[in-house]
Write the structure tokens for this entry.
Amino acid sequence: DVVMTQTPPSLSVAIGQSVSISCKSSQSLVASDKNTYLNWLLQSPGRSPKRLIYQVSKLDSGVPDRFSGSGSEKDFTLKISRVEAEDLGVYYCLQGTHLPLTFGSGTKLEIK
Amino acid sequence: QVQLKESGPGLVQPSQTLSLTCTVSGLSLTSNSVSWIRQPPGKGLEWMGVIWSNGGTDYNSAIKSRLSISRDTSKSQVFLKMNSLQTEDTAMYFCARIRYYSGDYWGQGVMVTVSS
């Protein structure tokens, strides 16, 4: 199974600051169709996960452009510019290139 | 709009079988794939398996021997059955529509506790 190593495990940031979360995979996430199925999800407190970004850098509908994703092969980053209070929760990376789908261990974002 | 809703028993006895239903609306199961994902209390997410739009299935190898996912397209329902439940199967169980090999629409989840 592909292991997704996500860092840091937690972050505490002030409103308006920018943060980055890293996700590294144990195998290349480039699929046979040449797409890279790396996703980012946010689980707000008491809520179901919500996908923010798919295929490395594509924003889901309604997701603010303060969120951006980048990376390739085995190394990926989620950046949140100008953090807002509603951004708190646990962020997960998820790879969909290889079965079984596997998640990172999560990064808990707290607001100072 | 697309909605998914999980239902099932909140409490299951050890060694028994868990049966959950995911009822979808706003989409057809013949052209959409649905996964089950679970989350033990205070822990991360674990992908369990998927039923593809063509009716084929794939499972997490860690639980494959205990798990079955099926569907009734006429009722827009996806089913999960997992046998030989143990306390470590206590978790919130989610179903999600799979698009671009990840879940873009998720249900609210159903909490399942394994206890005697």
